[in-house]
Write a structure and sequence with these properties.
Layout lengths: L7 H51 L4 H25 L1 H10 L13 H8 L10 H4 L1
Subcellular location: Cell membrane
Keywords: Cell membrane, G-protein coupled receptor, Membrane, Receptor, Transducer, Transmembrane, Transmembrane helix
GO molecular function: G protein-coupled receptor activity
């Protein structure tokens, strides 16, 4: 026995497939970004930590080699500001909003007052004068 489908069911099915496909693409991109960041972190810092433990146990690691591994970790830290904008659209937007070198020509520059109001937890306040404060 087959149950006939209503005409609205295939449309709802294709809509849910599009919704699932869209979110699976986002999840795939997020996991790829996380994999790249974690992979670079482990490639850069794991040798440093292994060498650090080895140095504590046997004191057989040359100082110059230890310095090279330390700088490899520092290089990883300098790569993060490059990696994030490459893979994260929200990060690009935030940087473009606050850094003059990354701002598009049509975007307005945020004022210092709007930045301080955005960073404060109090929200908008009524205008107060110096007399009212003192």
């Amino acid at each position: 026995l087959q149950v006939p489908r209503a005409p609205s069911q295939p449309a709802a099915g294709s809509e849910s497939r599009r919704f699932t496909s869209k979110h699976s693409k986002k999840a795939l991109k997020a996991s790829l970004t996380l994999g790249i960041l974690l992979g670079m972190f482990f490639v850069a810092w794991l040798p440093f930590f292994v060498t650090n433990v080895t140095q504590a146990v046997c004191a057989c690691v040359p100082a110059s080699f230890f310095d090279v591994l330390t700088w490899l970790g520092y290089c990883n830290s300098t790569m993060n500001p490059i990696i994030y904008p490459l893979f994260m659209r929200d990060f690009k937007r935030a940087m473009g909003k606050y850094l003059p070198c990354c701002r598009r020509s049509g975007e307005p520059r945020p004022s210092a007052i709007s930045l301080s109001m955005r960073n404060s937890n109090s929200g908008p306040r009524a205008a107060t004068s110096l007399k009212n404060v003192l």
